[in-house]
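Blackboard transcription, Thursday session:
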Amino acid sequence: MPAPLDTDPKIAAYAHPERLVSTQWLAEHLGDPGLVVVESDEDVLLYETGHIPGAVKIDWHTDLNDPDQRDYLDGAGFAALLGSRGISRDTTVVLYGDKNNWWAAYTAWVFTLFGHPDVRLLDGARGKWVAEGRELTTDVPTPTPVDYPVVERDDRTYRAFKEDVLAHLGKGPLVDIRSPQEFTGERLHIPDYPEEGVLRGGHIPTARNVPWATAVAEDGTYKSRAELEAIYQEGGLGLRTDDDVVTYCRIGERSSHTWFALTYLLGFDKVRNYDGSWTEWGNAVRVPIVKGDQPGEVPVHA
Amino acid sequence: MTGQPATLPAELASIREDFLALPERERLQLLLEISRELPALPERYADAPGALERVEECQAPVRAFAELENDGLVHFYATAPEEAPTTRGFASILAQGVSGLTPQQVLDVPDDYPHMLGLDQVVSPLRLRGMHGMLQRAKRQVREQLAARG
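(Written on the board underneath:)
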């Protein structure tokens, strides 16, 4: 049985209020049967320094990615992972993490590829929980393994591949959620800093730039529905909820954050995340690239 | 001048042995312990924002300085936010392993040292690029200071 919804007015106003919970709601429901809290961070050690009591860890590099092929784990792997964390198909999962939930949103997106029915994000992420002085523990739970069904991953509904993006050019909006410097192509590489290694800078033709953080309020929560509408819909980017939208960033994690906002907070029908993102596009041979701050035209031979 | 050293400097070798002696999952715990040993910045650096190099949006901000001191030896100082313990761990390994070496010893540290610690599976190669970058930067800073001294 799914956990009750958060009735907080800000959350209730979103298109899918069943996808977001406040820190207050989570504090009140910790330990509820049928609820599992999952932390997903950029930093692989952050969970170990202290986490929400009872939370289990799922790491995007070491748990969600296939170690060999650049892809996610398959249905059997996903079933084994979730079962080992004590998550069954009817469990309510609340995800949170560092960096404003970049990786938690990414994990939520991967859970959605496998159609897990009840996945929610903690509004405000780890940062808000910590800022509010709420409890953290270093006790690592040892969940009793449960059976999770082997479900085939759906790579069509919420996921776009490079070929899909090429076919999409000129047919629907593309939202590039990277920083403006990455969008224009001005910033590609910082000497001596680790980065994913990209050969070309710029953006996918016709993409418009709305950095992910535009959707975030000062306390790290998502902005209200009205504010998000003003950014992405009429008066802002001009998207319509029935548009076919593709989001991307460098490796698909920051764009998961925007994917989540468009899909669940604003109720868009069809938003796909292009997880290959710039680390694929900027390295691919003969794909069109636009430099500068304008979206650019659909190339004739795209 | 060139060529691979036959052995790693003692402290870097010792850190490597400590990691490799542990089962994979426990290596994370050791990295966490090492991260807690990262010394605070000396006061003369604590207020040196000019030395903070810009970082990619995806990485935790790190301030790191490999300083060639008057005794002719290198000292490595670094700071990173509390909420970036992995980055602090990488910095702490270098602070312990590089400090006290001669400039040539620092330049001779193998570039793939981060991958010699048995962390590729539990930390991931992409994240280890963070330590790789820090090591490269330390070498560059040492070279620049050597050049400045003539």
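Lecturer's comment: DSSP finds seven helices and two strands in chain B.
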